[in-house]
User: Which sequence fits this backbone?
């Protein structure tokens, strides 16, 4: 008999063996699960704004008696005008770093840019309290700036993005030719592994 905590963990993050002789039915409800396939371990996730099936660990040394799955990635695209609004905001704050969220409301299909009030804002760091979202709202893009420094994801960013489902973005060189980096964060310990 499983420990009740293990039972709870496995109920929200189940593992499914991919059938070999029939097609795997896609995850229908919001959540995520791990898939053991012929070629290794995969992550399948669904959110109102995201569906993905992505390999985590691939192997061919051991013959696994399971079926195969294909990569899939569908992301609701954020309103590009809000990214441009953030760039203007970040240029005004330069050389200090700043942060914002792009939030989507699944009930109204409306988008908004939420500028985050900094607890600390320096040339190389920004810290803020996470705002509460209304019912039906989803954080889609978590953005911050690097002021005059180039765009890259730091080890601090890796820690901040750990375990979340979102798109992370960083804009740099805001005093000249603006640079941008984006990555999908999908519940991983090191989001850099899924950089795009």
Assistant:
């Amino acid at each position: 008999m499983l420990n009740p905590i293990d039972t709870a963990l496995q109920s929200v993050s189940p593992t499914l063996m991919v059938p070999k002789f029939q097609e795997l039915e896609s995850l229908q409800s919001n959540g995520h699960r791990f898939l053991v396939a012929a070629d290794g371990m995969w992550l399948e996730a669904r959110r109102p704004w995201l569906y993905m099936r992505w390999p985590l660990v691939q192997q061919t040394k051991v013959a696994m008696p399971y079926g195969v799955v294909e990569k899939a990635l569908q992301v609701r695209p954020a309103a590009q005008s809000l990214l441009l609004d953030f760039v203007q905001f970040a240029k005004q704050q330069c050389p200090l770093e700043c942060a914002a969220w792009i939030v989507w409301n699944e009930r109204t299909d409306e988008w908004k840019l939420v500028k985050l009030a900094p607890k600390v804002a320096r040339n190389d760091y920004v810290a803020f309290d996470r705002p509460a979202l209304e019912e039906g709202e989803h954080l889609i893009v978590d953005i911050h700036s690097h002021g005059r420094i180039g765009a890259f994801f730091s080890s601090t960013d890796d820690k901040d993005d750990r375990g979340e489902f979102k798109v992370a973005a960083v804009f740099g060189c805001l005093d000249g030719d603006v640079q941008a980096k984006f990555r999908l964060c999908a519940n991983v310990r090191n989001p850099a592994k899924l950089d795009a």
Summary: Helices lie at 4-12, 80-93, 155-161. The chain has three helices and twelve strands. The first strand starts at residue 15 and ends at 17.
